[in-house]
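New here. Invent one.

***
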Amino acid sequence: VKALFDEGAMVNAMCATAFEQVKSQLRGWGTSLKRLRMANGIVIPSKVSWKGEVTIGGIKTEGEFEVFKSGGGWEFLLGKLLLRAFRAIDEYETNMVHITGEGGSTIIYN
């Protein structure tokens, strides 16, 4: 799943369309009662909540995300909580993100 890094997002989220494609591969998901406020002020109900191990570039950490209909602008929104869990460092000049977790560290190119 392709992710959009968003340091301003207070939750991690997956688009419902992407979730339907991968949900059979995920364990640890269940119904969510959360309501999410978007940047434009609209409140959208989350359909599903997931918690478990997240892997990016071979690096692992524990995380969670909400699932809702995003409108197709992105598949996965990697927000502040997962960025913090991966101890992400964004190098804006070079467009690289350093992440660290179980398995060491790696560089992701935006």
User: Anything to note?
Assistant: The chain has a mean pLDDT of 92.
